[in-house]
Automatic annotation (TrEMBL):
Listed InterPro entries: ArsR-like_HTH, HTH_ArsR_DNA-bd_dom, HTH_Metal-responsive_Reg, WH-like_DNA-bd_sf, WH_DNA-bd_sf
Pfam families: HTH_20
Gene3D superfamilies named in the record: Winged helix-like DNA-binding domain superfamily/Winged helix DNA-binding domain
Cited SMART domains: HTH_ARSR
Protein name: Winged helix-turn-helix domain-containing protein
Cited PROSITE patterns: HTH_ARSR_2
Lineage, opening ranks: Bacteria, Bacillati, Actinomycetota, Actinomycetes, Pseudonocardiales
């Protein structure tokens, strides 16, 4: 017979800061090697392997093999669960200037698995609504009739996105802004296009996203939104 879900087992996995550091790094959406995750968590390779084994056995991570290389990624639905838990978590105590700067950068712009979050993600989503691309519905966003034309201005195509198994335009509550940003297949497609245009840049081994000067100019021209000059 099947009992209730064993939430305590997941809680035990999340009760270790090393494992949490690895999970948060993978929340950036890119698979990472064990050595890269060891560097992120600041632990030895052997200790990282032990933690990763527990996360895989617990169903939070999936291993992908390419030849002799093994990379780890979040299992399905884990990213959404982590973002939800971040809404409940108290602020971490800042112990250095470096940590303070990193926290500010995370709040400004970061990857929420495969879509843009933080101040930049929220402001961009709200600008899309003002431009008439998105309208709020009870369970998420809907793309207006004019939306595809506006999105096509920067090369984002909706063809086929609405036929994917995931929602087209989903609301995702931003843990730092406490407002919604755009998720779903459209959120992922839009973020990918912003990266292609070099309007935003991913940081190596980090969820932090940097808005470029070209991106500030492009978003201002496209959506009339001022996000400040990036680096």
């Amino acid at each position: 017979m099947t009992g209730e879900a064993d939430l305590a087992r997941i809680g035990a996995l999340l009760a270790d800061r090393t494992r949490v550091a690895m999970l948060l790094a993978l929340l950036g959406g890119r698979p990472m090697s064990a050595s890269a995750l060891a560097d992120v968590a600041g632990v030895s390779a052997s200790l990282a392997s032990a933690h990763l084994r527990k996360l895989v056995e617990g169903g939070l991570l999936v291993v992908e093999s390419a030849g002799r290389q093994r990379h780890f990624r979040l299992a399905t639905a884990v990213a959404d669960a982590l973002e939800g838990l971040l809404l409940l978590a108290p602020p971490d105590r800042v112990t250095s200037l470096r940590a303070s700067v990193r926290g500010q950068n995370l709040r400004r712009a970061r990857m929420c698995y495969d879509h843009l979050a933080g101040t930049v993600g929220v402001v961009l989503t709200e600008a899309l609504a003002r431009r008439g691309v998105l309208v709020e519905r009870e369970r998420g966003y809907a793309v207006t009739a004019e939306g595809p034309l506006v999105l096509a201005e920067i090369g984002v195509r909706l063809d086929g996105l609405d036929r994917l198994r995931r929602p087209l335009a989903r609301r995702c509550m931003d843990w730092s802004e406490r407002r919604h940003h755009l998720a779903g297949s459209l959120g992922a497609a839009l973020t990918s296009r912003l990266i292609e245009l070099d309007w935003v840049r991913l940081s190596e081994a980090s969820r932090v996203v940097r808005l470029t000067t070209a991106g500030q100019r492009g978003l201002d021209e496209w959506l009339q939104v001022d996000l400040g000059v990036g680096s």
